[in-house]
Amino acid sequence: MTRSPHRDPMRTALRDAGARCAALAVASTAATAAGLVLPAVLGHTLDLLLAGAPATAWVARAAGLVLLAALLDGCAGVLAGTVDARATAGLRKRVTRQVLALGPRASARFGAGDLVGRLVGNAAQAGTGPAALAALLAAPAGPVGGVVALGLLDPWLAAVFLAGAPVLALLLRAFTRDTSACVADYQHEQGRIATALAEAVDGHRTIAAAGLQAREAERVLRPLPDLARAGHRMWRVQGRAAAQAVTVGPLLQLAVVAVAGLLLFRHRISVGDLLAASRYAVLATGVGVLVGQLAAATRAHASGRRLAEVLAHPAPAHGSRPLPSGPGRLELRGATVHRGGRTVLDGVDLTVPGGTVLAVVGRSGTGKSLLAALAGRLADPDAGEVLLDGVPLAALRHDELRRAVTYAFARPALLGTTVADTIAFGLTTPSPAGLRAAARKAQADAYIRRLPDGFATPLGEAPRSGGEAQRLGLARAFAHPGRLLILDDALSGLDTVTEHRVTAALLAPGRGPTRLIVAHRVSTAARADAVAWLDGGRVRAVGPHARLWRDPAYRAVFGARAAEGTTR
């Protein structure tokens, strides 16, 4: 059950910045209007000076127009900066909310590096869209006003310019089309490099340990030639458009000035009119302004499309049903999941009685983590359903689901300002005593006591190993009351003694949540109430570890020592 998300991000950004964009368009148009009036005033002033008539008032008018145009340009600059900042912030908020709503689906679909690139670079570029569009709407005022002014001076001047106008229109059309395509290609290649770089940074210790830095650098930079080609193509398109504009524009200006000179010779216009006509010809051929605004709007539109891809990805919809009282009985009924063209989980039927401990084991790639994701609805099955105390997870209210299900991961993301914030992350009213108890249960209390300020130590000043980070993640899970606790390989970074103590606390007698543990160690599976053995995307067997241990294929899941019959 999904919902189609959101409208076009650029349209929304434009709507949110509507008043400021309108003010920007008005300020830009007014500045252009002042610039259009100025040549006529200067021309008339020149005629007065040549005739020996008083021209002080007209000189003052010209100075006033120059000052007004400068003030309006300054206002337009401030408005453009404000609109850009607000639009960028709004787009980043929307995309961030969407990424968080998608959860793991977002990185699985786009890649973590590409998401960061879209959220940082593309959002900033798309944020310039509303201001670029407002400026683009105001930009034609210069060329159109210049042509009208030429016509007012003499119809022949406008006719000469309009004869070459179709060439300019064709240049702008081709420029817009070519720029849109090459900008999209450039941003796509940037996303590929960002994804590969994020993967390399995430696995930097493994890369260093294997001595494969050079190979990984080559992998990350492999799209660089494609990026360079896309960038060169983009600059060629813009350079070609600029060169064509530089060629066609001056020719039209020269034609207008030549005709104006002929009209002056025939006494149809004055010397001041000739001056004004030369300036209006420059304004009428203001293709450079249009090209620049079109380029900015095109880049913003291309970036907006990349944000729209994220926003258009369907986020999971949540139901309205509350969770009834119950022991935390988990059921998977015919759960099937496809990934990358293959079936990872194939019709899985599994029941975990409330309050019991189920260990999920299997070889790498058999879908253990995916099953754990389904159990708490971090992923949805393509077929079948998952129920908690008889209610399909998709029918539950979002807050009910997240209160009922708690996760701990092999590589937990530690969020918050202090260590206490990290353990309490997600709790409405954390209790200091509860946080301390959770840390003791996760065997993290000794580590925390060694920190300078204990629980109040800023997270950035709390150096930690992988195992210590895993203990903080476990403490966070233990601090959250719920009826289903899912540990996705969350004990893998612990030494044997610590793992034994955490498991003992996890399996302590007494009423507790239902526990689903993705396990790789024999000791963890042996202490569980039951073991679900995944093989080839199906549940091959469910039962006590001691009974399954008789099967050599089951022992082989745990490696060579287990295959020889050695238990730990």
Characterization of this structure:
The longest helix has 48 residues, at 155-202. Residues 1-6 and 563-568 have low confidence and may be disordered. The two termini are 44 Å apart. It is elongated, with a radius of gyration of 34 Å. The chain is built from 24 helices and twelve strands. It has a six-stranded mixed sheet, sandwiched between helices. A four-stranded antiparallel sheet has the order 4-3-6-7, with helices on one face. A two-stranded antiparallel ribbon has the order 1-2. The chain has helices spanning 9-16, 18-51, 56-102, 104-110, 112-127, 129-138, 141-153, 155-202, 204-210, 213-220, 224-265, 271-284, 287-312, 368-375, 398-404, 419-424, 432-441, 445-450, 466-479, 496-506, 522-527, 545-548, 552-556, 560-563; strands at residues 2-3, 315-316, 330-339, 342-352, 357-362, 383-388, 391-392, 405-409, 484-488, 514-518, 530-535, 538-543. Helix content is 64%, strand content 12%. Strand 11 (530-535) and strand 12 form a beta hairpin. It has 568 residues and is an alpha/beta fold. Helix 5 (112-127) runs antiparallel to helix 8.
How many distinct helices? 24
What characteristic shape results from the CA principal axes? Answer: elongated
Radius of gyration: 34 Å
Instruction: Determine the mean pLDDT.
Output: 83
Helix vs. strand class: alpha/beta
Describe the largest sheet. Answer: 6 strands, mixed
Walk across the major sheet and give the strand order.
8-9-10-5-11-12
Percent helix, as a range, is: 55-70%
Which regions have little confidence, pLDDT < 50, spanning 5+ residues? 1-6, 563-568
User: How many β strands by DSSP?
Assistant: 12
Strand content: 5-15%
Q: What's the N-to-C terminus distance?
A: 44 Å
